[in-house]
Write a structure and sequence with these properties.
This protein has helices at about 15-30, 50, 55-70, 80-95, 95-105, 120-135, 155-160, 170-175, 200-215, 225-235, 235-245, 255-260, and strands at about 1-5, 30-35, 75, 115-120, 145, 180, 220-225, 250-255. By secondary structure, it is an alpha/beta fold. The radius of gyration is 19 Å and the shape is globular.
């Protein structure tokens, strides 16, 4: 059995439990053990880096240091915001020896900062996708809009993604599940991120633009790999519908939930009952809609 260091972060233990549940369930099917970093702490997203640079590096650095103490050289970070903070810390500490020494002094932990974070998409591509097609029991008959958001592909040089404006990693995964990935224009546009509580109207308008572009091209559902993106497109759907002037009911699932469904895992095991926009298996029984390009945009520019 493969053993991998795992940092769930705050979201996967709170508002996005279904992400954690589905990731663990899928990993088990592929005989992969995700070992949580002992005594991990909040990475500081999304405010720490706006207040204090050393603090913003020290918070994620502690988790990297603890993973190193457990004997790991890399760490799975499924939350895109957490990944961004841990990757930033990894990068900063490896290019600035003085900063590393300062952080080591603050944390009172001696470590080399060589544990590299990687995303859930990296994890799927390396450990799941090579064996995925042969394990699919229930192909997904759906036209899926793969939504990346901001942090999985930015900044490009740091995350090492070549097609940062038009990534295709999730598309290759959903193809293996028997689904049809959507060719659309808003896959890396911002959903409003942390403004979800303080400026719900702004989030609603930004999400409505994302929804409108995907739905106008025939999408029946969304695949995401970021808790904040999922939350904004799902929980703030009512706010988005105000700008759409219609009720958009396309569900927003984590990529791990889609894999679990194709593997034939139970809906509850994948946390599908937790979404605000209801998900029903009957969605896979419907004909895949054709593109409806040319549909007039209802959403004004922000």
């Amino acid at each position: 059995m493969i053993k991998i260091a795992y940092f769930p972060g705050c979201s996967l233990e709170g508002s996005s439990k279904e992400y954690n549940e589905s990731l663990l369930a899928v990993s088990k099917e592929f005989e992969i053990q995700l070992e949580e970093v002992h005594d991990w702490n909040c990475c500081g997203a999304t405010a720490a880096h706006n207040l204090n640079k050393v603090l913003s590096i020290s918070l994620p650095a502690r988790t990297l240091a603890l993973a190193e103490k457990q004997g790991f050289s890399e760490i799975l970070v499924p939350c895109a915001a957490c990944y961004s903070r841990l990757l930033t810390a990894y990068n900063e500490l490896n290019k600035d020896a003085a900063l590393l020494e300062k952080v080591k002094e603050i944390l009172e932990i001696d470590f080399s900062a060589k544990v590299k974070p990687f995303t859930v998409i990296d994890f799927i591509q390396k450990h799941i996708q090579p064996k995925l097609k042969e394990k699919v029991k229930k192909p997904l008959n759906a036209k899926i809009a793969c939504y990346y958001g901001c942090l999985l592909v930015r900044p490009p040089k740091l995350v090492e993604v070549e097609r940062y404006e038009d990534p295709l990693m999730m598309e290759s995964i959903v193809k293996e599940l028997g689904a049809t990935p959507l060719d659309w224009a808003f896959k890396t546009e911002c959903c409003g991120a942390g403004l979800s509580v303080s400026r719900t109207s702004t989030v609603g308008k930004l999400c409505s633009k994302i929804l409108d572009d995907a739905l106008s091209r025939g999408a029946t559902m969304f695949a995401v790999a970021c808790p904040m993106c999922q939350s904004n497109l799902d929980m703030r759907r009512r706010n988005a519908n105000v700008f759409l002037n219609e009720k958009a009911d396309a569900p927003v699932l984590f990529i791990t939930q889609l894999i679990g469904l194709a593997l034939g895992l139970d809906k509850k095991e994948l946390g599908l009952q937790r979404h605000f926009v209801p998900f029903n298996l009957e969605i896979f029984d419907k004909p895949i809609p054709k593109e409806t390009l040319g549909k007039s945009k209802k959403v004004e520019e922000v």
